[in-house]
Design brief:
The protein is α/β, with parallel strands linked by helices and about 400 residues long. It is built from 15 helices and eleven strands. The radius of gyration is 36 Å and the shape is globular.
Length: about 400
């Protein structure tokens, strides 16, 4: 009996409680939320972190400008950020025989500060016995992958820089180099050699060694390895194949049978709309000249711009352009190989290096700009060349 009484009592109490809840819910629906429900709802909707405590007003342009004027980042002071930085120095550039490469400032390009000359109707060649100070400049203006280049003709390299030029280079220069040419209009190779067995390195600024010192070029790195030969750097900045062929003939006439080898450094811009700028024109033009001298040591270095060697990173070329690049490369290499040239393919060098390092960006280390080899890039090119005999 007692057990049944307890069970019934519990049922009655539960029924009363449920009834009160139903009454409370109906009353709250009609009159508004109860105090209990308001407390529960407030607790549920309250975030763990009060947004008022972390919300910040986004900075305005005025805020950023005010902050910039107070604390101009020290790192940005070493970059040329606008043209006015350069234009205000034009009088100093002109009086100090300075030309700025990779800029539109043709007014700074004068006969005195130009490394090459091209008389009307004749081929381009280097000036003899010239001395230049050069440097890359840190900048945020003009072309991507083409750093501005400071070129200063210096009759005397011991001549001190003007205070304005020294200050300019101290702030903005990235890599300083010296360029020298000899009496025969060839770039000076360091170390020098007195060997009578000569190997000629011909081509444009890639062969010349744009952005490199005299001891970092292809001829210089070969000279350090193979001391039994004299390597001559006959590269011509801005030259076309016809200029290289003309220079090759001049040097063969000068040295005759002492020339034991030819290294032709191709550049992608060899394929401009001038004769003989086709695979057949370039390779056959070389062969016609060197066959007369029975030269057996022949190396053809095939260079490509960064846009073609790393198109997955630098996506500025269309599929059709890349296809044409590869068609020209394959045709040129095949023709050169069939004519006895050992091939050094810089496309393969770049991509093998990327694979070996595991970084798709590693290829940049082999260039100093969009086309010229870095010192490390030159080393890898030279590594691919057979020893001369």
């Amino acid at each position: 009996m007692l057990k049944n009484f307890m069970i019934n009592s519990i049922i009655v109490v539960c029924s009363i409680f449920i009834g009160l809840l139903l009454f409370e819910g109906a009353y709250s629906f009609l009159k508004g939320e109860s105090k209990i429900l308001r407390i529960v709802k407030k607790r549920i909707n309250t975030p763990l972190i009060n947004p008022d405590e972390i919300k910040q007003k986004p900075p305005t342009i005025k805020d950023l400008n005010d902050r910039k004027s107070k604390t101009d980042p020290e790192e940005m002071k070493s970059y040329i950020l606008d043209e006015n930085t350069l234009k205000q120095l034009f009088p100093e550039f002109k009086s100090n025989r300075v030309f700025l490469g990779n800029t539109p400032y043709n007014e700074l390009c004068e006969a005195v500060n130009n490394l090459t000359n091209q008389p009307s109707g004749k081929n381009r060649d280097n000036k003899p016995s010239t001395k230049f100070r050069c440097a890359f400049l840190r900048s945020r203006i003009f072309n991507n992958f083409d750093p501005l280049v400071y070129w200063q003709f210096c009759p005397d390299l011991n001549e001190p820089l003007s205070p304005e030029m020294k200050n300019f280079l101290d702030i903005y220069s990235f890599r300083s180099t010296v360029v020298l040419t000899d009496n025969n209009r060839n770039r000076v190779t360091v170390p020098s050699s007195d060997s009578s067995d000569i190997i000629l390195v011909i081509g444009d600024s890639v062969a010349f060694g744009g952005g490199l010192n005299n001891d970092e070029t292809i001829s210089a790195q070969l000279q350090k390895r193979y001391t039994a030969f004299k390597f001559i750097n006959a590269g011509i900045p801005g030259g076309q194949p016809r200029d290289s062929f003309n220079k090759l003939q001049i040097l063969l006439n000068l040295y005759g049978n002492h020339v034991k080898g030819i290294i032709y450094v191709h550049c992608e811009n060899d394929f401009l709309l001038y004769e003989p700028n086709t695979p057949e024109g370039i390779v056959n033009g070389l062969v016609r000249i060197i066959d007369k001298y029975d030269i057996k040591y022949r190396v053809f270095v095939y260079q490509m711009y960064i846009y073609a060697t790393m198109p997955d990173i630098i996506r500025s070329r269309t599929q059709e352009e890349l296809k044409n690049n590869m068609i020209l490369k394959d045709a040129t290499i095949k023709l050169a190989r069939n004519n006895g040239f050992h091939i050094v393919d810089f496309y393969d060098i770049v991509n093998n290096y990327r694979n070996s390092t595991g970084s798709p960006f590693a290829g940049f280390a082999l260039y100093v700009d969009h086309c010229h080899f870095s010192s490390q890039g030159v080393k890898m090119v030279v590594d691919q060349m057979p020893p001369p005999k």
